[in-house]
Design goal:
This protein has 232 residues and is of the alpha/beta class. The protein has six helices and ten strands; from the N terminus they run βαβββαβββαβαβαβα. Strand 3 and strand 4 form a beta hairpin. It binds adenine (ADE).
Length: 232
């Protein structure tokens, strides 16, 4: 890989990566700071996209157009959709779906974007395997899962929404950007993967757990991300 694009939605998710970088050159576009430099010996562009699917899609497209990145990795935190996935654990996307896309009235399955040829955007096999391997090596005390990441413009924080999303999409975790980055990557034929550390259980406890565990979750996603780039 010549150049790796790394997107985090929030400054807290990318600031520790930026601190580890050298030879940084910053360019601003669409209110986003694109930090190009070296992270653990690899050329990367690290950027905070802002929250939500539109910000994330715009950000991914700029990485493709202006930097011609060879892959896009989305790092950050998420709410767990499965009992066995605990706060602090990592989910590596096998694919991603947008849970708030609903054209069922036109006869499309829930989550499918009309006139696109796929319901879910498959992540890159090599990136999935490498992320799991590195995670087991560098954070052996936590569990790592490979499964579907489900995205939507919603902070999921009640049991009914969690159960509905979980039943409809068989997701492992939910967040607000991954599937939009995946859609941009898919349209541009760029490999991608989403790496998310769990900050909450996406149920009635989420609003309390999220602020309490955000830091720990971010520490895990940063640890994984910075070690993974060495091997790309
Ligand atoms: N990011 C972290 N936790 C989340 C949740 N419960 N819903 C959506 N995005 C999240």
């Amino acid at each position: 890989m010549n150049l790796i694009g790394i997107i985090g939605a929030m400054e807290e998710e990318v600031s520790q990566l930026k601190e580890k970088m050298t030879d940084v050159r910053i360019t601003k576009k669409a209110e986003m700071e694109f930090c190009k430099g070296i992270l653990n010996g690899k050329a990367v562009v690290v950027v905070r996209s802002g929250i939500g699917k539109v910000n994330a899609g715009i950000c991914a497209q700029i990485l493709v157009d202006d930097y011609q990145v060879d892959c896009i990795i989305n790092t950050g935190i998420a709410g767990s959709l499965k009992n066995e996935i605990n706060i602090g654990d990592i989910v590596v996307s096998t694919d991603t779906v947008q849970h708030d896309m609903d054209a069922t009235g036109f006869g499309y399955p829930l989550g499918q974007i009309p006139r696109m040829d796929t319901l879910a955007f498959p992540a890159d096999e090599k990136l999935i395997a490498l992320a799991q391997e590195v995670c087991r090596e560098v954070i052996p005390e936590i569990q790592v899962f490979a499964g579907r990441v489900v995205s939507g413009d919603q902070f999921v924080s009640d049991r009914e929404s969690k159960e509905r999303i979980s039943k409809n999409f068989q997701g492992y975790c939910t967040e607000m950007e991954g599937a939009a980055i995946a859609q941009a990557a898919y349209l541009n034929h760029v490999p991608y993967v989403v790496l998310r550390a769990i900050s909450d259980k996406a149920d009635d406890s989420a609003s309390v757990d999220y602020p309490a565990f955000e830091r720990e979750a971010i520490r895990h996603s940063v640890e994984l991300m910075s070690n993974m780039v060495k091997r790309l």
